[in-house]
Automatic annotation (TrEMBL):
A GO cellular component entry from the record: ribosomal subunit
Origin superkingdom: Eukaryota
Protein name, per record: 60S ribosomal protein L23a
A Pfam family annotated for this UniProt entry: Ribosomal_L23
Amino acid sequence: MKNMKDISTLVFIVDVDANKHQTTQAVKKLCDMDVAKVNTLIRPDGEKKAYV
Protein backbone atom coordinates (compact mmCIF):
# COMPACT_ATOMS: atom_id res chain seq x y z
CA MET A 1 0.00 0.00 0.00
CA LYS A 2 1.38 3.42 -0.92
CA ASN A 3 1.93 6.18 1.57
CA MET A 4 0.05 9.49 1.07
CA LYS A 5 3.39 11.26 0.56
CA ASP A 6 4.07 8.99 -2.41
CA ILE A 7 0.77 9.63 -4.19
CA SER A 8 0.14 13.34 -3.59
CA THR A 9 -1.88 14.40 -6.62
CA LEU A 10 -3.73 17.63 -7.34
CA VAL A 11 -6.76 17.63 -9.62
CA PHE A 12 -7.70 20.65 -11.75
CA ILE A 13 -10.49 21.38 -14.22
CA VAL A 14 -8.77 22.81 -17.30
CA ASP A 15 -9.81 24.12 -20.71
CA VAL A 16 -10.62 21.33 -23.17
CA ASP A 17 -8.19 22.87 -25.68
CA ALA A 18 -5.28 22.96 -23.17
CA ASN A 19 -2.53 20.40 -23.73
CA LYS A 20 -0.29 18.82 -21.09
CA HIS A 21 2.54 21.31 -21.67
CA GLN A 22 0.20 24.28 -21.15
CA THR A 23 -1.26 22.65 -18.03
CA THR A 24 2.24 22.08 -16.62
CA GLN A 25 3.21 25.71 -17.20
CA ALA A 26 -0.01 26.98 -15.58
CA VAL A 27 0.46 24.81 -12.47
CA LYS A 28 4.08 25.95 -12.13
CA LYS A 29 2.95 29.57 -12.33
CA LEU A 30 -0.07 29.29 -10.02
CA CYS A 31 1.25 26.89 -7.37
CA ASP A 32 4.99 27.65 -7.62
CA MET A 33 5.95 23.97 -7.62
CA ASP A 34 7.63 21.43 -9.89
CA VAL A 35 5.42 19.06 -11.85
CA ALA A 36 6.53 15.45 -12.28
CA LYS A 37 3.82 14.42 -14.74
CA VAL A 38 0.35 15.36 -15.94
CA ASN A 39 -2.46 12.94 -16.74
CA THR A 40 -5.60 14.27 -18.39
CA LEU A 41 -9.05 12.95 -19.13
CA ILE A 42 -12.21 14.37 -20.66
CA ARG A 43 -15.25 13.73 -18.53
CA PRO A 44 -18.58 12.62 -20.04
CA ASP A 45 -20.03 16.08 -19.33
CA GLY A 46 -17.34 17.65 -21.57
CA GLU A 47 -15.00 19.07 -18.93
CA LYS A 48 -11.30 18.18 -18.90
CA LYS A 49 -9.57 17.10 -15.69
CA ALA A 50 -5.83 17.24 -15.15
CA TYR A 51 -4.15 15.09 -12.50
CA VAL A 52 -0.85 16.70 -11.51
